[in-house]
Amino acid sequence: MSATNGTNGQQHPVRSRSASSPYQSVQDYLSNVANFKIIESTLREGEQFANAFFDTETKVKMYGLNPDCAEKSAKALDSFGVDFIELTSPVASEQSFKDCRTICSLGLKAKILTHVRLNMEDAKAAVATGVDGVDLVIGTSSFLREFSHGKSMTYVQKTALEVIEYLKGEGVQVRFSSEDSFRSDLVDLLSLYKAVDTAGVQRVGIADTVGGATPRMVYDLVRTLRGVVQCDIETHFHDDTGCAVANAHAALEAGATHVDTSMLGERNGITPLGAFIARMVVTAPDYVKSKYNLKELKALETLVADAVQINIPFNNPVTGFCAFTHKAGIHAKAILNNPSTYEIINPEDFGLSRYVSISSRITGWNAVKSRVDQLGLKMSDEQVKEVTAKIKQLADIRPLAIDDTDSILRSFHAEQVEGCGSY
Ligand code: HCA
Ligand code: CU
């Protein structure tokens, strides 16, 4: 039995924005909301996810599973259409080095990057794996300079220039990023970025390592940086305060070019791939639909969730089990008439379908009527109203499953309409 949809066979209408809305976003010439690239870091940032049982002692294989799995995930990411795949540093462990090599040899469309600390040994190991690009990172906030690596900004800049020169000589792309950018001294940060830009990096990155930034802070920093460097700007937002998707959107509005995403990550992760895609398919539908294989999102998220033995959260945008479920009678009625009333995203774009629940006390007769039609039962509106009252009565007493409501409908039909059976 399929319990889906309920749109009376209607085509999903185009979700156009209301021209009269005062909230309609206005993009200026720097905005990249319809022209961005995704650096997918589930195979690097995601490896820092707690359940991935990647303890520092063992530094085991990708996701703590077999190397096959890392390969499978990389292929799935590639087929989804992400522009870059970022992998764990090859110096993390022997297996990490091998995984980098293996994934580089798959001939994927996506460019393969690895993420290393700012020093020459790490940079050399990265080059040895055959990656297309190297993402360099070092902490620049006073917290990290004092309590982590203990280096001065002068040292950071000098080392950055040496390592960048080496990597350029090896013919790989270079990105230079600062950890904890939002708690770093702005003047220090800008002069460092100006220097690495002049040295010829492809991208500079800013990272909200602790997840404390707001969209407005992001907009201001990216806008300022946009005026200082010529190269692309990559952004990386942790989700500790729930702003990671909004921050990525604000960054693109301010002129950032690349967004880091991950389906898992350190603590509660960074901008999630699926939620980011959900945001962007609404902002820039043509760009997103033409570039990414949206119908693969669910399988991709399931693959990753299974690999680390977790469930996709119930309220996940798009793929959460109730993302397209409509329950309240008042919503159901409108949805059945026109899905855009209560949906900003079309489930069909993702190969999914909406579900109108009728098994509750808050259902309404329009939703029930649509289920009656789906089941091929013939009833008058009056009869549908009557059976709706019965469903609500029962649902007041105990939770109902879809099967329960279906059998109520069938029995009612048999008794009231066909005049046989017992209700
Ligand atoms: C970390 C590092 C990082 C790096 C981001 C970047 C962060 O695990 O702390 O290279 O841009 O969040 O700062 O993921
Ligand atoms: Cu991070």
Automatic annotation (TrEMBL):
EC number: 2.3.3.14
Keywords: Amino-acid biosynthesis, Lysine biosynthesis, Magnesium, Manganese, Metal-binding, Transferase
PROSITE patterns to which the protein is assigned, alphabetical: AIPM_HOMOCIT_SYNTH_1, AIPM_HOMOCIT_SYNTH_2, PYR_CT
Any one GO molecular function term: metal ion binding
Pathway(s) where this gene product acts: Amino-acid biosynthesis; L-lysine biosynthesis via AAA pathway; L-alpha-aminoadipate from 2-oxoglutarate: step 1/5
Pfam (any one): HMGL-like
Catalytic activity, reaction form: acetyl-CoA + 2-oxoglutarate + H2O = (2R)-homocitrate + CoA + H(+)
One GO cellular component term noted in the UniProt record for this chain: mitochondrion
Domain Pyruvate carboxyltransferase: 36-298
Membership in a protein family: Belongs to the alpha-IPM synthase/homocitrate synthase family. Homocitrate synthase LYS20/LYS21 subfamily.
Protein name: homocitrate synthase
Species whose genome carries this gene: Cordyceps fumosorosea (strain ARSEF 2679)
Lineage: Eukaryota, Fungi, Dikarya, Ascomycota, Pezizomycotina
